[in-house]
Specification:
The complex is a heterodimer of chains A (305) and B (296). Chain A is mainly alpha-helical and 305 residues long. Chain A has one domain: MetI-like (MetI-like fold). Chain A is built from 14 helices and 2 strands, in the order H-H-E-E-H-H-H-H-H-H-H-H-H-H-H-H. In chain A, a hairpin with a 7-residue loop joins strand 1 (43-44) and strand 2. The radius of gyration of chain A is 25 Å and the shape is globular. Chain B is mainly α and 296 residues long. Chain B is built from 13 helices and no strands. Chain B has helices at residues 2-9, 22-54, 58-64, 76-84, 87-118, 124-136, 140-152, 159-183, 187-195, 200-229, 232-237, 246-251, 261-295. The radius of gyration of chain B is 26 Å and the shape is globular. Classes of the chains: A mainly alpha (305), B mainly alpha (296).
Chain lengths: 305, 296
C-alpha cells in the first residue's frame, strides 16, 4: 500500500512540468508587475532615476483628491449603465422573444432579432467609440438629423457639455452591452421547457406574471453571472472615455482607469498613478468577492428549498 | 419548485387573461413585432449610418445630409483612410497578435489545466484562487510595470511582447474553465490509456485533446476576439505606426477628422468589417460557446 501511494505521488509531481510554462508566464506578466505596482504606489517616481520611498503619502493625497472621488462616482454611474440598465432591458426583450415571438412567429424570427441586437457587442470598443464620437460631436450626425427634422432646439454638444457628457457615454455603453446579456439570457431560456409557459398561460397568468414568476426565477444563475462580469467591466472602463471624451470636459467623465493612465503617461507622476490603480484593484476585488459570497449564499438557500 | 410556481399562478382572480378575445390578441402581435423592429432599427442605426456615409463623397454628405442614401458610390473616404493609416499593415498586426494569443493561449490553458485537473498537483486549488484574482486585477495596475519591464529588456514597441502578455492573460480564463472540465474527466479513460502504455504526453495529445476539441475551439475563438478588441496594453506598448493594431489605430483617431465626416465614417466601417467577418465565420462555435459559458 505504502509503495502504491509513493509511486502515485511521484507521478503527480511529474505533472508540475506541464504547469511550469504557465506559472512562469503568470509570475512574469501578472505577479511581478502587480507587486511592482503596489511597491511604486509607496514612492515618488518620475520614471527616470530611482523612485524615492514616501510611505503612504500618495494614498493620503488620494483620499483628499476631489477628482478621484468624482471618478468613483462616475464608476458607479457606469455600473448602472453597464450592469443594471442593459440587464433589465435584455431580460424584457429576451422574454418577449422567447415567450411571445417564438410562440407566434416561430423560432427563426426570434433568432433573427437576437442576432441583430447582438451585433453592437462584437465591435471593438475603440471602434464603437469612433463611431459614436462621429455621431455625437457638435457637427455630428445626431445634431444634423435633429436640425433636419425641425428639432434643432434639442441639438447639443453631447460629449462636450459638462452635464450631458456622462449620460452620452452611459447611453453608448447601454447600446454596447445589451447584446451580451440578451444572448446569455436567451441561452438560459433554452433550458426552460416551453410547456411551463403554456401551462402558466392556461392557468391565466398574464405576460407580466409569466415574466415575474417564471422567467426571472429561471434565469437567476445567468443574472448573477452577468451582474458580476458587467460590474467588473464597469469598474475598468477605459477605451470609451479615452476615445470619446478624454475624461473631459473638465473631468466630467473621468474614471479611475483613465485617471491612472493620465498620471502614468501625461503628468508622469507614476507613484500617484500606481496608487490610483492599486485602489481601483482593491475595490474591484472586494466587490467581486462580495458578489461571489452573495451568490454562494443564494445557491445554498436554493438548495435548501 | 415548478409546482409552486404554477399553483401561485393559478390563484383565483388571475384568470382574466384567458378571456381576451382572439382578434385583439391578433392585433397585439403586430404591435409587438413593430416595437421589436423599431428597437432593432435603433440598435443597428449607427452601423448603418457608418456604411451609408462611408460610401458617399464629402460634397454629397454636405448637401444631402447623413440620412440620404449616396447619390453615387464613392470610395474616396475608404481609400483615404486605408492609405493614410496603412490599414493592411494594421490588419496584419491585429491578425498576427490575435492568432498567436489564441493559439498559444489555448495551449497554455490546456497544459495548466492538465496539471491541475488531471495531475491534481498539490496547491492546485490555491492556484485556481490566485488565478481568479488574476482575472479581476484591472490591467491599469499592470500596465506601467509591463511598460517599464518591456523597455528595460528591449522588447518595447514590438508585437512579440504583446503576444506574450496576452497569451498569459487570456490563458487564465481557460485554465479556470478547463481545470473544471478536466477534474471531472472520466478516470477510466485515462487508466485504459495508461494500461495501453501511453505516457503523460501521449495521454494529453492523443486522448484528452481530441475529446476537448470543441471546447478548445470555443476558447480559441474567444481569445482571438478578445485580443482583437484589446485596447489599453497595445495602446501603451505599441507606440510606432508600423506596430499598431486596428483597435489602437482607430482609437487614436479621436476627433482628428471632425471636419471630414465621410473619412470618420469610412474609418468606423473599416473597423467594423473585420469583426463582422469573424463573427460570421465563428458564429457556430460562438453560439455554442456562449451556451457553454452560461451553463458553467
Amino acid at each position: 500500500m505504502a509503495t502504491v501511494t509513493k509511486s502515485y505521488r511521484q507521478n503527480n509531481s511529474a505533472y508540475w512540468l506541464y504547469l511550469f510554462p504557465g506559472l512562469i508566464g503568470f509570475v512574469l506578466v501578472v505577479g511581478i508587475p502587480f507587486l511592482m505596482n503596489i511597491g511604486i504606489s509607496f514612492t515618488k517616481w518620475r520614471g527616470i532615476r530611482m523612485p524615492t520611498f514616501i510611505g503612504l503619502e500618495n494614498y493620503e493625497r488620494l483620499i483628499t483628491d476631489g477628482a478621484f472621488w468624482m471618478s468613483l462616482q462616475h464608476t458607479l454611474f457606469f455600473v448602472v449603465a453597464m450592469a443594471v440598465v442593459p440587464t433589465i432591458i435584455s431580460l424584457i426583450v429576451a422574454s418577449v422573444l422567447f415567450d411571445y415571438v417564438s410562440a407566434r412567429f416561430g423560432q427563426q424570427m426570434s433568432s433573427f432579432f437576437r442576432a441583430g441586437y447582438y451585433l453592437p457587442q462584437i465591435l471593438p470598443i475603440s471602434v464603437a467609440g469612433v463611431l459614436w464620437g462621429w455621431i455625437l460631436n457638435p457637427h455630428g450626425v445626431l445634431n444634423l438629423i435633429l436640425d433636419a427634422t425641425g428639432l434643432g432646439a434639442l441639438s447639443s454638444n453631447w460629449l462636450g457639455d459638462q452635464t450631458l457628457a456622462i449620460y452620452s457615454l452611459g447611453f453608448v455603453m447601454v447600446w454596447l452591452q445589451i447584446g451580451y446579456s440578451l444572448v446569455i439570457f436567451m441561452a438560459g431560456l433554452a433550458r426552460v421547457d416551453p410547456a411551463l409557459y403554456e401551462a402558466a398561460e392556461l392557468d391565466g397568468a398574464g405576460a407580466a406574471q409569466r415574466f415575474w414568476y417564471v422567467t426571472i426565477p429561471m434565469l437567476r444563475p445567468e443574472i448573477f453571472v452577468i451582474g458580476l462580469t458587467t460590474t467588473i467591466a464597469a469598474l475598468k472602463v477605459f477605451a470609451p472615455v479615452y476615445v470619446m471624451t478624454n475624461g473631459g470636459p473638465d473631468n466630467a467623465t473621468l474614471v479611475p482607469s483613465f485617471f491612472s493612465y493620465y498620471h502614468f503617461f501625461s503628468t508622469v507622476r507614476i507613484g500617484y498613478g500606481a496608487a490610483i490603480a492599486t485602489a481601483q484593484t482593491a475595490i474591484t476585488i472586494v466587490l467581486a468577492l462580495i458578489f461571489l459570497w452573495v451568490q454562494a449564499r443564494q445557491t445554498e438557500e436554493a438548495a435548501h428549498d | 419548485m415548478t409546482d409552486q410556481v404554477l399553483s401561485a399562478l393559478s390563484a383565483p382572480g388571475t384568470s382574466a387573461g384567458l378571456n381576451v378575445p382572439r382578434h385583439r390578441r391578433g392585433v397585439l402581435r403586430w404591435w409587438v413585432l413593430a416595437l421589436l423592429i423599431a428597437f432593432l432599427a435603433f440598435m443597428l442605426a449607427p452601423i448603418f449610418l457608418a456604411l451609408n456615409n462611408a460610401l458617399k463623397s464629402a460634397a454629397d454628405y454636405a448637401t444631402n445630409g447623413p440620412l440620404a442614401l449616396p447619390t453615387s458610390l464613392d470610395f474616396t473616404g475608404v481609400v483615404g483612410f486605408w492609405d493614410y493609416v496603412d490599414f493592411p499593415k494594421k490588419l496584419w498586426n491585429s491578425l498576427l497578435l490575435s492568432a498567436c494569443a489564441a493559439l498559444f493561449g489555448v495551449a497554455l490553458s490546456l497544459f495548466n489545466a492538465y496539471a491541475i485537473g488531471i495531475g491534481r498537483i498539490k496547491g492546485g486549488r490555491v492556484m485556481l484562487v490566485i488565478l481568479l484574482l488574476g482575472i479581476m486585477i484591472p490591467q491599469e495596475s499592470l500596465v506601467y510595470p509591463l511598460y517599464y519591464i518591456a523597455k528595460s529588456v528591449g522588447i518595447y514597441d514590438s508585437l512579440f511582447s504583446v503576444i506574450i502578455i496576452f497569451t498569459v492573460l487570456q490563458s487564465i480564463f481557460g485554465t479556470y474553465l478547463l481545470s473544471a472540465v478536466l477534474t471531472s474527466f472520466p478516470r477510466e479513460i485515462l487508466e485504459a490509456a495508461r494500461v495501453d502504455g501511453a505516457n503523460r504526453w501521449q495521454i494529453l495529445w492523443y486522448v484528452i485533446t481530441p475529446i476537448l476539441r470543441p471546447t478548445l475551439a470555443v476558447l480559441a475563438t474567444f481569445y482571438f476576439i478578445w485580443t482583437w478588441n484589446e485596447f489599453l496594453i497595445p495602446l501603451v506598448l505599441l507606440i510606432s505606426n508600423t506596430n499598431q493594431t486596428v483597435s489602437v489605430a482607430l482609437g487614436n483617431l479621436s476627433g482628428q477628422y471632425v471636419s471630414q465626416p465621410t473619412i470618420t465614417a469610412a474609418a468606423s466601417l473599416l473597423g467594423i468589417l473585420p469583426t463582422v467577418i469573424f463573427f460570421l465565420i465563428f458564429q457556430r462555435t460562438l453560439t455554442k460557446g456562449v451556451v457553454v459559458g452560461a451553463v458553467k
